Amino acid sequence: MLAVQIVIAILFILGIYTILNRKNVIKIIMGINIMEASLILFLIQLSYKDGGTAPILDKEYELIVDPLPQALALTAIVIGASTTAVMLFLAIKLYKEYGTLDISEIRRLRG
Amino acid sequence: MNEMIWLIIGPLLIAFSLLAINLYLKKIYNWIIISSSILTFILSCSLFRKVLIKPLAYSLGSWEMTKGINLVADPLAGILIVTVALLNLLIIIYSLAYIEKNISKYYTLLFVLTAALNGMILTGDLFNLFVCVEIVSIVSYALVAFRRNHKAYEASFKYIIIGTVGGFFVLLAIILTYHQTGTLNLAQLVVRSSDISKVVKSGIISLFLIGFGSKFALVPLHTWLPDAHPAAPASISALLSGIVIKGYLYAWLRTLLILSNPSEIIASNLNLILIYSGVITLLVGHFLAYQQQSLKRLLAYSSISQIGYIMIGIGTLTKQGMSGGIFHIINHALVKSALFLAAGIFSEKIKAKKIKSLVGIGYKTPLVALGFTIAAITLIGLPPFNIFISKWLIALAAIKAGFIIPAGAILLGSILALSYYLKVIKAIYTKKKENYKIININWRLKIPVITLTSLCLIIGLAPNILLPKLGQAVRYLLKSKEYYQILFTG
Amino acid sequence: MINPGIIYLIASIILYMSKEEWRKYFALITAVSTGIILFALPQGQYLQLPFLDFEMILLEVTAVNRFIGFIFVFFSIAAVIYGINLFSRKDYCLTYFYIGSSLAIIFVGDFFSFYICWELMTISSYFLIFNNQKPVTRETSYYYFVMHLVGAISLLWGILLHYSAVGTMALTTVKVGLPFFILAVAIKLAFIGFHTWLPKTYAETPFYISVILSAYTTKVGVYSFYKLLGSRQYLAYAGIVTAVIGVLLALSQTKVRKLLSYHIISQIGYMIVGLSVGTAIGKKGGLLHLANNILYKGLLFMIIGAVIYSTKGEEDLINLGSLFKKLPYTTVYVIIAAVSIAGIPFFNGHISKLLLKKGTNDPILVWGMYIAAIGTSLSFLKILYFGFFKSAEQEIETKQRPTKGMLVGMGLLAAACLIIGLRPQLLLQILGGVKKEVNYFSLHYLWVGLQPTLLAAILLKLAYQWVKPQPHKSHPFDLYKLLGRGFNYFGSKLSQWHNGNLQRYILWILTALVLLWGQALI
Questions:
Q1: Residue pLDDT, tens place only, A2-48
Q2: Best residue of A11, A83, A95, A105 to probe chain B, by most B CBs closer than 10 Å
Q3: What's the CATH class of domain A2-98?
Q4: Which residues are within 8 A (CB) of B447 and not within 5 positions of it... i.e. 6 or more apart?
Q5: Hey, which of A66, B411, C256, C371 would disulfide with A47, CB 3.0 to 4.6 Å?
Q6: Quick one: closest CA in C to A105, which residue?
Q7: Domain limits of chain B?
């Protein structure tokens, strides 16, 4: 369990690091996705029980995993996917308009 | 029929059926949009009337209250829903004449936005709150990029990165809450929030504040707003500045007061942080607005500063201050929308985007310019308009709660606001030529501006039509435990 | 029962919508009928309206506010007649709004409505001053509005402090938050040091607008001084400083309206002295001086307006001269006005100055008033001599004669000056009369009244070179503009930090999060 949590923390920090330190727009988007993955992993880790089965509410299955976080994880994945789609669309358009993917040069709006 | 569920599903259904209607029933397209938004407005009014008597709860799919998806509505939610519906209606009237390209995408997005906003306000559990917040955000990103020029793309990209990071913080906070309490239902959270250990709770509250704060533009998390709001079409800027950021604010406020109660907040000094972040927000907003050359950017910074006033009102945590803050939310929604819509008319019809190029517009479009002027004077906080009343309430509450400096900052803000709005008014009424031709403006563009400004005057002259209801709303907000007990025990 | 100011406010909306040919008659009828209504108002409190969590008192009639109300309405009649053919639709509407709000402020009985009227006055006067033909008014009106808003905000802050400490809204002498009320009033009535808005604005608006402005803004300031601050000795000294410095600044001006503007400041000084010395006679003297000042200062502004009108824009004493041949009626009026303001017996200035002198015992104040009176006389001798009687090197052309309306308006005010000068009791009885012992026309007082003018005449002769209108620099130093620049500098620095770099923005967010969490853990 602890190992998983450490991995989650590393992933989260890695995502933030990528967003802060990479100039490339695509890499920033990847950083966002790494962050998201770590959060989803966290959700799954919450509900995980050793030897648990799928949440079927029946007397046969005593040890079941918590269904709620899994539902949440699915929704979060959907949201993440759509956000990523919009981001990538914007990255393409930015490249067309600015001729670069360097985020430090995409700053005509300021002040 | 239950209004709550229809307020969410209705706009959603219309949004997607619009795509088909656009293909097959193009003739009645406009009628469908107008009539459905009127219908939403009527529904929201009827919901508001009901919740004034008694807060309502509704459970989807006949699950138990604590297990299924719930919708709850109290007077505060009712008021916000009415504001959303009213603005939505007016903005749709405006858009009929304003939006010329990509019509079907535009209205689809607009209705999804309305549905998600309604969902955000009415939802009864944290995760649905997150889902609705994200839907609102994604739609806003798309709408900001709607103009399809480099500014729009850049603004939208910055918005999406900051918004998503903020969204992750919210999600992390929600996961932590679930980890600690084992529930996401607001009603159960009220009871179980005391189980959360102190360290984790402070973390959760900080994450919520930063996450939502980066969506409702609290300084220093505001940086996307002055890019994003001006880049969108004027009607969308009006919606974003008017109600969307207030929706996030509402969501944050609800979660905050469910996770902890006023006495806890005061004990952990969070109220000081809220109030002083409000002070910084309003000062920074005003100072930066003064620097702007472009009208819509100025308005965007002014929106940031208004968030500061609201934060001060909320931070007092007294009944008077909070009702002042919420009153300010509504007032600002009306005024800022009027300003953005008028600015949209200026930029669209006269091609005037910079403040300098507004010269003489007061003679070309007298009525709209008058509306803009009145709205600007309102926003400065001069009587007898509504913003003055809410500033008065907030300042008085701050003084009574012992926050002298923040109260002073509220008043100082008026002077700062005057310094830049007066620049705009000055440009509007400057006469360079002897005779200006009056430009013909579609009535659909004029009506929303006039309605909103006259509403400002009406509410300013008779604030008592709204204030008692706000008092009721705040009572439920401050005593969330009682509220949810009432709700679930009948 | 209705607050007379509200009649004007409603009238302003009707004036905006009414037809061209009816407008002026309607304006006149409104003014006259308000005067009649004012006569009929009995004293007491009326029109209470619950608002938020207090009562608004929209009408409270006392001797003092009836007195000031009369003068305000009377002046508005004269001013409307004066400009009856000059006002455009916008002017009528804004003027009535402005007069209405200043009349309403006199009659309200609680702080909240007091503040609202105060702001309405500022807003409407801003748009009156903002004149789209003259570019310079854009700057001056901006300056005016910002400065007045500073005053208004200070008033609002005072009111908030007062209300939260005392718990009632009733308009009384304040006990809490006095400095803020003083600042607010000081800006409104143009204390020296807070006066910078006044000469700028009054000298640049169209002449018929400056006639109206000259009468109301500062006088409302004086009324609020009376109502809010009460009598405090140290304010009397501030008043005398204002009176003396105002007159000195006036003496160096050559543009007549600028000169008159500085005179307003100086005359305000007198009123403050009267109101803050704390004697009953002084108070009545101060209020009567307020009335007199509205009459003759308004008359003077009208006269210079007539000059500007007939010469098409000339108001510099350097260029003016020998107008008495061309504008005979106006010359009669200017003599009446100048004599009144100089305090010569049988004119109204004499009466109020006498009462002020009777009311003060402090020698500093008496001497200060004496010096100010000499300065006043000198500057009006200057106007009379250089403007109307001295033959100019280049004969100034009059292109059109003053309209009949102008002459009638000026005549009304001149007549009022004379009547009050001869029968002061007519006006004073509204205030409750003054004890019999002041005999205005005893030889001693006549001599006292003449002294300053005689001294001034001698001074004019002796220091001719110094007094003579000559080109001069206007004051380049303005503390408030400097403050504005500092504000701008700070803003531009702040703006530079927002350099458009996304990663910097995200860093801010993370820093905020860390700080917030860290502080919560500690």
A1: 899 999 999 999 999 999 999 999 999 999 999 999 999 998 888 88
A2: A83
A3: mainly alpha
A4: B90, B93, B94
A5: A66
A6: C501
A7: 268-490
